[in-house]
Amino acid sequence: MTTYAFFDLDGTLTSQDSFFRFLVEAVGWPRLAIGAVRRLPWLLGYGAGLLSNDPAKRAIFREFFAGWPADRLLQAGRDFSCTVLPGMIRPAGRQRLAWHCAQGHVVAIVSASFEFYLEAWCQAEGVHLIGTRCEIRDGRVTGEFLSPNCHGPEKVVRIRERFDLREDDYIYAYGDSRGDREMLDLADEAFFQPFR
């Protein structure tokens, strides 16, 4: 029997949205404001519930990062992961994460956020990472996703791809939104908005 602990990141472990904070750190407020105006239909559609998380996120990612040199994006991600993200983690969430690791459980962050800016933090914490991947081709960021957005049902798909879950395994899951519902349904013990 293996015990797993699956944690959503944004809003569950963090006190704010990591993608928005990464945008601020990577491109700055002036560029962010210009890009937000250019992508306003997607933002309004998502805010009004007319667009799902996926197309809005793709439009925003393409707006700000398509064409970037891959090294520039990956370095920005490492910097964010090491210097900004740790300060965004809720103390109670950090304690629960550490508890699962101390018990010898298999712990994974399962997030719609991009792997390139979570990877260094996850490595430092000693936990697995399942997130959204961006496409890099010929040393440039294409603006497209290499994997489906890791949100909603896709979280369970990606968990099952990574881990050979068995009938006698025990699963904890932590989430805070409807995008975590399927992952929470997978668990023996599910916690909704546990660290607020």
TrEMBL record:
Taxonomy of the source species: Bacteria, Candidatus Ozemobacteria, Candidatus Ozemobacterales, Candidatus Ozemobacteraceae, Candidatus Ozemobacter
One Pfam family per UniProt: HAD
Gene Ontology MF: a single term: L-phosphoserine phosphatase activity
InterPro entries given in the database record: HAD-like_SerB, HAD-like_sf, HAD_hydro_SerB1, HAD_sf
Any one GO BP annotation for this protein: L-serine biosynthetic process
Alphabetical list of NCBIfam families matching this protein: HAD-SF-IB, HAD-SF-IB-hyp1
Entry protein name: Phosphoserine phosphatase
GO terms for cellular component: cytoplasm
Gene3D superfamilies tied to this protein: HAD superfamily/HAD-like (3.40.50.1000), SG protein - dephosphorylation function (1.20.1440.100)
Coiled coil location: none
